[in-house]
Amino acid sequence: MNALRNKVQLIGRLGQEPEIVTFNDGNKMAKFSLATDDSYKDKEGQKVERAYWHNIVVKGGLVTVVESYVKKGQEIAIEGKLTNRMWETEAGEKRYITEVIVNELLMLGNK
Fold it and tell me: Judging by beta carbons within 10 Å of its beta carbon (0-12, 13-18, 19+), is residue 111 exposed, middle or buried?
């Protein structure tokens, strides 16, 4: 292995309409949740299905694509990197979030 890499690939459906954030300098960012599914058999042999929710962030030129074409319920494939960040609330409480920063996006179909 040449080097360890931080790489995430997900296929799922948007759980909400993308939120587009415009910064003072005119740059934009899109944020949304993406649901992926998993299934397994429990001790009794019953199939159990579970949804996992991922926080997705899109920056740069892909924001235009998200803003124009990506909608709630749509199936997409993304590739990006996993990031963690922390901030403090006004009350001084620390909050943490894990996000996927997207560098590639492929629209797979509609709901």
Answer: exposed
Instruction: Please report, for the chain, the start and end positions of each structural domain, with discontinuous segments joined by +.
Output: 8-109
Compute the distance between CA of residue 29 and CA of residue 21 in angstroms, rounded to an integer. 5
pLDDT, tens digit, 9 for 90 and up, residues 44-81: 999 999 999 999 999 999 999 999 999 999 999 999 99
Cα separation, 16 vs 37, in Å, equals 16
Domain with residues 8-109, CATH architecture:
Beta Barrel (2.40)
| Residue range 24-40, pLDDT digits in tens | 998 999 999 999 999 98
